[in-house]
Amino acid sequence: MSSETILVVDDGKENRDFIVKYVLEPNGFNYLVARDGLEGLELARQYHPDLMLLDLQMPQMNGMEVLEALQAEQLDIPVILMTFHGSEEIAIEVYRKGVRDYVKKPYTVEEMYDAIERSLSTARLRNEKDQLTERLINANASLNQRVRELNILYNIGKSVTALMDIPTLMGTIAEAAVQLTSCDECSIYTLDEGALICRAIRREKDQRTYRVDEVRSDALAQRAIELGQPVVLTPEEIEAMRREKNRQARIAERQRKTKELWLFKTGTTVADCWLTAEDRLANAARSA
Question: pTM of this prediction?
Answer without folding.
Answer: 0.49
